[in-house]
Every structure is written in C-alpha cells, then in structure tokens.
Amino acid sequence: MKLTKDKFKEDYQRLLTELYSLDIKDSEVSEQYFTLGNLIRTYASNDWKNTNESYLKKGEKQIYYFSMEFLLGRMLKSNLLNLDILEVVQKGLQEFGIHLENLIEFEVDPGLGNGGLGRLAACFMDSMATCAIPGHGNGIRYKYGLFKQKFVNGYQMEIPEHWLRNGNIWEVRRLNKAVTVRFYGNVWLENSSGRLVPRYENEEAVLAVPYDTPIIGYNEQTVNTLRLWSAEMHPQDESHEYGAFLKQQSQIENISEVLYPDDSYYDGRLLRLKQEYFFVSAGIQSIIRRFKKKDLPISHLSEEVAIHINDTHPALCVPELMRILLDDEGMDWESAWDLTKKVLSYTNHTIMSEALEKWPIDMMSTLLPRIHQIICEIDQRYAADMRYRYDDHMIERTRIIEGGHIKMAHLAIIGSHSINGVAKLHTDILKEKVLHDFYLIFPSKFNNKTNGITQRRWLLLSNEPLRQFIDSKIGSNWEVNPTDLTNLKAFQNDEDTLFKLAQIKKLNKQRFADYVKRTMNLTLNPDAIFDVQVKRLHAYKRQLLNLLHILSLYFKLKENPNAYIYPRVFIFGAKAAPSYMYAKQIIKLINSVAHMINHDHHIGDKLKIVFVENYSVSLAERIIPAADVSEQISLASKEASGTGNMKLMLNGAVTVATLDGANVEIRDQVGPDNIIIFGLTDKEVYQYYHDGSYHAYDYYIHNPILHRVLNALIDGTIPGIEIEGQDIFDSLVKYGDEYFVLRDFEDYRLAQEKVDQIYRDTLRWQKMALLNIAGAGIFSSDYTVLQYAKEIWDVSAKSTQD
Ligand code: AZC
C-alpha cells in the first residue's frame, strides 16, 4: 500500500481525536499507542478481507498449523515493517513530537509460548504470510502467558503476567464463529439404520470463542489469520442458580487461563489434557464448517485442507477428525482413516523422553469418552494390521496404548502421513534410535525439515544499523531472497568493510550496555567480548558448562592478576520451569557467581556476568544484535535443532558449538574455520551409553583446573550457595553427570581460549562474523515453510522470488 506521510498524519490525528476526544499534544503514550494500533489494523483490513475472499474463491488448499504455543513477540513494529510503512509512520509521528520507540516499548510482549517450539510457530506464521502460503495458526488465547521471572536474592520467582490487562489491539473477537466443545459424560453406540451412532448423556459443554489476529505478510497483499480460542460458559448454562453459575464459570474459564510453563517436562495434569482437546476440537470444527461452505463431498477434504500437528500437544487431532468423519459425516472407518492420515502431518521437536506425552487411560476415558473409544479402536486395528508383518515385541513397542497409557507420539505417527524432525541430525537420530521401529514400519513417512527464523524480526527490525550496512554493500534483494546474503562473501577481505562491521557491533553493544546500566545498574565495557547464552534453562543445554569455564577464568585471574585474558562480558538469559528444581538451582548458582565476580574490584572490567531477568522475545531482540559469541553447547544428540543459533549467526556472532542440532548445518554453511566446534559427537555419546564407560569422577580427580572449579561449589568460595553448590557438585561428581559436563569441560576451555586468541585480531574475527552473516540466509524460515508446503502439505506457494 502506498501511504504518504501527510495522509498518515491526517489519519492519525483524526483517529486520535475520534477515539479519545483529545488533541495530540494532550495525549499520552497509551493513547498514542492504541491510536496507531487501530490505524494499522484499518490499513491491513482490506488485505485481510481480500485474502480470505480470494482463498475461498480460488479454492486454494488451506494449511492449519495447530500449536499449543505461538510466541509472537511485540507486533507493532513488525506490522509496520510488513506493511512497508515503517519509515513513513516514524517520520510522521516525529513531526507530532512522538517517538515511535516509546510506543513500541509500551506494547506488552505476549508470552504465549515457552521457548523454541512456540517461537518457531511464530516465525512460520510470518513466513507463510510473506510467501503467500494460505497458512493459518490455531491455538489457545491464554489469559496468562508464560510467567514473568524475577530474581530475589538470586532465586527465580514466578509472577503471573496478565498481558491482556490493557486489552489487545491486534485481535478481533468473533462470537458468531464460536463452537461447542464437549467433555465428560457417558457415551454408548446405538444401531441406527445399520450404522453405529454414538449417544451421549451428561456432557459438559464449553463454548470456544475465537479471537483472530491478522498475520501480515511482507508482500503487500497477504494477510493470514491466527485463531486463538478462549473458553467461556455456554449460554445454555447461564440460567443456573447464581452460586453454581459462578463455580462452573470459573471451572470453564480455567481451560484457557494459563500456559503451562514446562518446556519439556511432561505434566500429567488433567487441565492440560482439557486444553489440548479444547483447541483441537474447536479448530477442527471450524475448519469443517468453512469447508462445507464449498458444497463439496467430505471425501475431498484432503484436497482442500492440511492440518499440521506441532509436537504431540495437538495429537488429539487424529481421533477428533475421525470422530467428526465417522459420527457427524457418516463415513465408514476405512475411508475416514485414509482421509485423516492424508490431512494430518506431525513434527517432532525433541528426543528428551520425559517430553514425550503419555496420558493415563482412565483420565482419557473419563474426560473424553468418545475420543477414548476411537483411540482404542485405532490401536486395535493397528495391532491387527501389523500382526502378519511384525513380531509381537515390535507391535507392543509401537502400539498406542501400552502399560495403561496412551502414547501421543505413537498416535501422531500412526495417524498422519508425514513425520519430520527439525534438523538433519535430529531426523537421523529419530530414524536410527528414538523412533527406529516406526522408521522400519513407515520409512516413507519420515522426512527432515530444518528449522528456520524470519530475517524480518531477527535482522530488519532488531538490527537496523546492520540492515542498512548490508543494503549498502549488496543491495536489498536479500531481504526477500535471503540466500543473496552470500554476496557478502565478496567483501571478506575488504578491510574497510570489516572495520565498519566491527563499528556496528560496537554500537549495538553500547546500546545493550546502556540498557543494562539503566535496568541493572551494572557498567559494561563495550570493547569486551560479549558472549551470549540465551535459551531456556535445562540441564542438557549445559549453562553449567559455561559457568564452570567462567569460574576457571576467575581463578586464573585471582591466582595470577597479571594473566592476560581478553575482557569478557558473559550474558545469560533463561527461565526455568517452576517445578524444575535442578534448573532453578543453576539459576541461583549463576546469580551468586555473578555477584561475586561483578563485585570483585581486582577483576574490574576483565570479567562481568549479566543474567538478565525475564528473558523474552523483546529482550532477545536487544541482546542478539550485541553478541560477539553465540554459545550453543548442548550435549550432542540432545538439542533437536536450536533456532537461537541461527538468529545469532545472522547478526554476526561467531558460534562456539557442539555438533548438535542445526549447529551441524551451520558448520556446513560457514566452513570449519568460521565456527568453533568442541566436545563429544552424538556417536560418542551413544557409545558411552552403550558401554557404560563414562566415569565423571576421573575427570574431577585428574584435571586440576576442573578440580579447583568444582571444589569452589562446596568449599565456601562462592557465598550463598551452601545447598545448591553441594547438590550441583553431587550431580556432577557423584551421580554420574548425566550430560557429560566434566567430559567436555577441557575441550570447551580450549575452544574458549581460541575465541580469546582470535578476537585479538579484529580483522580475522570480523571476517568470521561476516561469513556467518553471509551463510545465514539458508536458515530463513521462508525457505523452511516453502519446503513444508511442497513436500508435506502439497500446496503450491507463490514464492517470494516470483
Ligand atoms: C524445541 C527444541 O528443544 C529446539 O531444539 C528446537 O529448535 C525447537 O523446539 C523448535 O523446533 N522444543 C521445545 O521448545 N519443546 C517444547 C515442548 O517447548
């Protein structure tokens, strides 16, 4: 759309007065923000309407991405960028004396996700709209997103975040599109004209109300929809006696009250299962309702619709779609089953066994009696089908119901036509280890789709100086065709370019340092190496390895004050699941070490530790542009992909990494000279598991540096960690060191020495940084979703390169 500055100013002024009966000069930030948000919505509304109409008219296949989490981040700036009116609006506001930055900061960052999985869903939304793929999100409108993290005396405290307090300018409530979702009750099958049909009694009906958010593509036309469901009391129940009404109301509203703050630990609470069925059932019902507008026989569903299951949380799509096809549409089992598999596809995001969901049979049969019946039948038919091809053990290992539990990953694999991992290595491990049996049974269902990130949020929006610099070197085509970033390679030996790159990094570091000064009253030296590890706190991600190395540097300086190490600022950002005690102990330990080192006058600028509170998308946008070093140090085989690794490389950070997840593909892109690899490989890890030959204690005894560092956890060197220090020490030295921290320590320390050495040579370092930016284009989620579209969803997409 072509909006001029004057037109914008006129619209803005008029709307502000209409909404608030005020003059701009008398308005406050909140009024200015809501006026701008409203105006953006108006600007996008025609495209939104047209997109929907054209999808219906042209009969394009629609993709529905079902996810428990969408970690969108703030939308104001991203919407301005994608509508291509960022500059005009910025200038227009400036003329009113309004700083766009203040309005951007006013928006609450909606934390409707835990980490990688939810953020990936958000990147996919942005990319699908940009690539004109008819792809829509389906999820839950949690009243409370992820908790707000506070540190009290170094401990994590969780505070509820009522992100909707001021309203949400981006969503539209569509009560007329509400559907009913049913729980509990009794169900039995009755013969009706030769067909078994279910009869129900005593069910609990919940009204699912959709809130739609426009997802604006960076292509001046496509606006897709993110539909989030909210649970409300059914109108039929509103006639109840007042006390009973209130009780029931709160029970029902509970369903969409809060996001589960566990990023990989299975939590067996009934409410979670309710949430899963709630958004699955509501989503599928609304998809079928839209499909019916077309007057096609239901057997055509798979030509018109693809539904993607993001991890196992929406795996109830399998029995729910079956239920609708069998019970509402009257299909026979075989046809319904074929159709279900054609419509559904599934992504696995983790091999951590505790994250593979299982539900007790009793819980399923009480809460969802009909769904339970259907799952049992799928399971029995599966076992019967396999009987002539595989032995009993194989069938037992792969069936859905086993040991009184329903295995959701098995349900998703058996009930869909595609299962993909999220990085090459991860997919290989799924095929060879974790899901090997299934791979033998259904080899053609397995495929890889390496994750990606949207270059719009993670560079164009968050690192404007770098964007402008890249544009000045290679033009702006890379913004829509990110592999064009490889053209930067032409400048890898150009000193002027490399020095400018260093200047931009320093500018970003200074900006972050200012933020840290403002919020934490800690002074950072922007000439130090900014070394970043930001991600959820989890033992397998090994923040602990990073910390042990920091302690080794500290002791080196204490023992020899003249030892020269290049000054470093270690930056952490991480939330721990509230019930994950070990992770919370690590948080306390990092904070205590930070306190000790940051207050040691002998250390001064040489070492600083910043542990930012409440790591979130908006904080990531501040930190990532300022990073020199990207820490991707999970135990090989455990991190399915990682996506922070991609964001950091795109912003010119050099990665210190194990050969895990997408780090392997990053190395392949940049070459071994431009990434610093250390540690065990996945094969070596599996070998250790196999022969049981890892003895952590030996590393404690034989490596004097490690010995010194580990003793510091228990000898009173670090104040305030009596309990945590001992527990962590024991987990490493006594109880087997599950994630091989001690085994990889020395190798990691040497890798870090390499960082220290190379960084002293600015040109060499910046050349590595440049080659990382140049190699990052392939990790754009635009390419990832185009691959999903072609190879899984079977839709044609209008690629950005057209
Ligand atoms: C994460 C994986 O741990 C991470 O490696 C991957 O990059 C990301 O998904 C996207 O694929 N998994 C989760 O976040 N899992 C949950 C349940 O939150």
Automatic annotation (TrEMBL):
Q: Which family does the similarity line name?
A: Belongs to the glycogen phosphorylase family.
Spell out the CDD domains in the cross-references.
GT35_Glycogen_Phosphorylase
Q: Where in or outside the cell is it found? A: Cytoplasm
What's its top-level EC category? transferase
Q: Which reaction(s) does the protein catalyse, per the Swiss-Prot or TrEMBL entry?
A: [(1->4)-alpha-D-glucosyl](n) + phosphate = [(1->4)-alpha-D-glucosyl](n-1) + alpha-D-glucose 1-phosphate
User: Which named protein is this?
Assistant: Alpha-1,4 glucan phosphorylase
Record gene name:
glgP
Q: Which UniProt keywords apply?
A: Allosteric enzyme, Carbohydrate metabolism, Cytoplasm, Glycosyltransferase, Pyridoxal phosphate, Transferase
Pfam families attached here?
A: Phosphorylase
Write out the GO cellular component annotations: cytoplasm
Per its Swiss-Prot or TrEMBL entry, what cofactor is needed? pyridoxal 5'-phosphate
Modified sites of kind N6-(pyridoxal phosphate)lysine: K647
What the entry lists under PANTHER family is as follows: GLYCOGEN PHOSPHORYLASE, GLYCOGEN PHOSPHORYLASE, LIVER FORM
Protein's GO biological process: glycogen catabolic process
Keyword check for Phosphoprotein, yes or no. Answer: no
So what EC number does this one have? 2.4.1.1
Report the superkingdom from the record: Bacteria
Extract the InterPro entries matched here: Glycg_phsphrylas, Glyco_trans_35, Pyridoxal_P_attach_site
GO MF term (any one): pyridoxal phosphate binding
